[in-house]
């Protein structure tokens, strides 16, 4: 047992009471908007106005059913999934290879090159969004998955390379030496020794990249034109533009589009929390 | 040391690996991260609508116009406001919660997850949820006002309150992330130090004040760094809420760049904004790292 | 290097999208229509075109008005741009022509050109080249709710001058009725006030002079006065609570819900207010009134001058010939009559207006026919970048953060900068 729960058994303690009230207040601050959104999707527009907080008096399942039955919803999720998966895989492959070189091979200019990549941490993608747009246009990639994927991968590189490099450097030295002495080439060593040992860091970097790509708005907004290509953050904005004041439908749509994130979060919370915070700390 | 021993042994395979493994990252990074920044500096000197190639050289005119635009000043002010609120409200809140929730008691883990959840949700979805919360007709806030018989303010529609409304959402969305950083750091702290101070007769508060928090300084510095950098890229959240309005009152640097540069295809002007933003970000990151995070 | 990467990437993305390979021609048609009743007809039009042209598929794409305007500049730069896009003509169209993203269709529309209202067609013509076809015209004026007006004993038909309007606003406020609703968040609904005032004060001559930079340009007397008069109205706080946060569709729905007495809008809102009202019924015809924008005593503009849009479809470069055919089909007398019969629009094809069967739309059609000076929306007419400044500045005037003088200066500065 620890000191926190011990005082709870004694007669009411003001500190504990304040703490509980404080926690309850913050919990309400966080949870109420979310709950109201989910429940709002079950209400009619009229009820939403009179009773935005409570449980619906009549559960309007057709708000949700209608969206789930629509092609549009699945298309948005499909696009998001394709873009995020491509981004994640590419970022993992490209960044781990580069990091491997930086971790194990010293060559002329390696320090300089590593610093070159570190520059990517200094500024957000938005700073050069117009030239980036022109570049993607000139490559003929507007309105394609790759027009979104490649810039996203490029911007994920700096952080990913640093994370991978640190991990690779921490692998047991004996292992590396033994393998290399045994005549294993670097590429083979990377493929058959480093990668299998790198599950945790692959998961971390993969999580960060996937979540960022899944939620991304600016780059897809600028690179994609046709709604057939839209990932869900763009689609949800179009939906809102189309249904303006039909808040019950918009709320149902929001709920359904954040549902995958939520499910993923519930089932992989340890990885996600560890990934997102570790990425921040170690980067 | 490792690299040098292996280097001697395997000179040839070494270079193969470099040649094989480095170019993809180098190419992507150069093409999509470095070159656009360099090009922004170049385009910033032109008046150009993006078609054909830039021809109309205007020198520093774009920069002058950016500085003369009222929205630019507002955007700068708003970014500063976000930083101030992050430091003055979000950070202490996150720290307090972390100190409570780092300990083990029933519900602590569930609360941690609840508080972290907003950070995982997309900014766009968060913005839409809060545009519902703030909606003057159907929103949660409006119904609270109606309950007390008052007419609801349209927070997002007034130049006086739009930024306040956004700041609340910023805190809602990001405090959990900072809290998690602190919790991770607290859990990594040496329990012996804390036990020792308790045995020495320090009160709970004294232990926190003189042992836990000083040990957290590196994390706090890191947290401030993220708050500032995050503020400078704030955009996704603003779009569904106000699109920078009304009358540019909630514009941020990036939303200003988007609404005055991208949607008008003023490539030169927009690039100039980008260059200014780049200079701000880079200056901050480099100075901050040099002054406050030297040892990390 | 670029070329190599480009081809590699193209190959990769082709491989990924190979499933979508089609044997037939697809025409991508980007529209902004939100009214489901009108959309239903459009869809029928598309289906019947497909039936008449086997192997052609019309793919309808939608963007909400405001997102469309924000998206358009980047959208057009893509090689994969939609084949048919919506247009309000004017300076925005001119910029698109200069950018070379549109297709000259003059050759293929010769047969139907004589059928189309010359003024409307001229809006899509430059240097003898035709870049699209108009399909509707509209007028900006005041829609009002007769019941709400009656509460304050205001008669909409009697509002003739600007002072009448101000008096009506005061009376409505005194009676506890919200006088006006406006989609201030989208900004352009507010620019109607400033620009229509300028149309009334200075007439066509003043606008032409401003374009040439004469008599002070947009800082000239006409535009200063337009700002001053708009400020008179704004100072009465005539708009709904939170108007600067309302998007246009929201404001339209607000009017349709019977929450505000008047709204300065494009004539097509007559229909949209029904579709966007919470009950999807809106204000019925017998409760709905219309008056033209009030006149200014001593103004040089004629009372018959109108502000409004000429809406058309542009054909983008690289579009298949079926796209042109479809646009022609859309403005054929048959389709135009159908849309006119639904009272959705004032048609541009000669004779189609005969199909209009209600008094409201007939009135608009007559107004437009009588008008000698039909001013296109400034935010379109002055081009993409200056137009946005007009919207920004007038919204700031309405929000109280800019003075009339500053509005004029901002517009003139943007115009001088010429981009």
Describe this structure in words.
The complex is a heterotrimer of chains A (about 280), B (about 300) and C (about 425). With about 280 residues, chain A is mainly alpha-helical. Chain A has two domains: about 5-65, no CATH class; about 70-280, MetI-like (MetI-like fold, Orthogonal Bundle), CATH 1.10.3720.10. Helix content of chain A is about 75%, strand content about 0%. Chain A is built from 15 helices and no strands. The longest helix of chain A has about 35 residues, at about 70-105. The two termini of chain A are about 35 Å apart. The model of chain A is unreliable at about 1-10 (pLDDT under 50). Chain B is mostly helical and about 300 residues long. Chain B has one domain (about 60-190, about 215-290): MetI-like (MetI-like fold, Orthogonal Bundle). Chain B is built from 14 helices and no strands. Chain B has helices at about 1-10, 10-20, 25-45, 60-70, 70-100, 110-120, 125-135, 140-145, 160-185, 190-200, 205-230, 240, 255-260, 265-290. In chain B, helix 4 crosses helix 14, helix 9 (about 160-185) packs across helix 11 (about 205-230) and helix 13 (about 255-260) packs antiparallel against helix 14. The radius of gyration of chain B is 24 Å and the shape is globular. Chain B starts with a helix and ends with a helix. In chain B, about 50% of the residues are buried. Chain C is of the alpha+beta class and about 425 residues long. Chain C folds into two domains: about 25-135 and about 310-375, D-Maltodextrin-Binding Protein, domain 2, CATH 3.40.190; about 140-305 and about 375-415, D-Maltodextrin-Binding Protein, domain 2 (3-Layer(aba) Sandwich). Chain C is about 45% helix and about 15% strand. Chain C is built from 17 helices and twelve strands. Chain C has helices at about 1-15, 35-50, 65-75, 90-100, 120, 145-150, 160-175, 190-210, 220-235, 250-255, 270-275, 320-330, 335-340, 360-370, 380, 385-400, 405-415; strands spanning about 25-30, 55-60, 85, 125, 130, 130-135, 140-145, 260-265, 290, 305-310, 310-315, 375. In chain C, strands 3-11-6 form a three-stranded antiparallel beta sheet, with helices on one face. Chain C has a three-stranded antiparallel beta sheet with strand order 8-7-9. In chain C, strand 4 (about 125) and strand 5 (about 130) form a beta hairpin. In chain C, helix 16 packs antiparallel against helix 17 (about 405-415). The model of chain C is unreliable at about 15-20 (pLDDT under 50). Chains in contact: A-B, A-C, B-C. The interface between A and B is large, with 102 and 100 residues.
